Amino acid sequence: MNRKPKTVSFRRLARRPSRRLGRLLSAGRPARPLMARAFGHPQGVGLLGPGTDSLLRTLLVDALADRARPRATEVILTRAELERLFPEDIDQFPAEHYDSELHVTATLEDAIERLEDRAASWNTHEAATRPPILWLAAPGEDADVVHDTLCSLDGADIIAIFRGAWPYGPTHLVDADGPRQVPNQLELLSASEAIGKLTASP
Question: CB–CB of 108/50 below 8 Å?
Answer without folding.
Answer: no
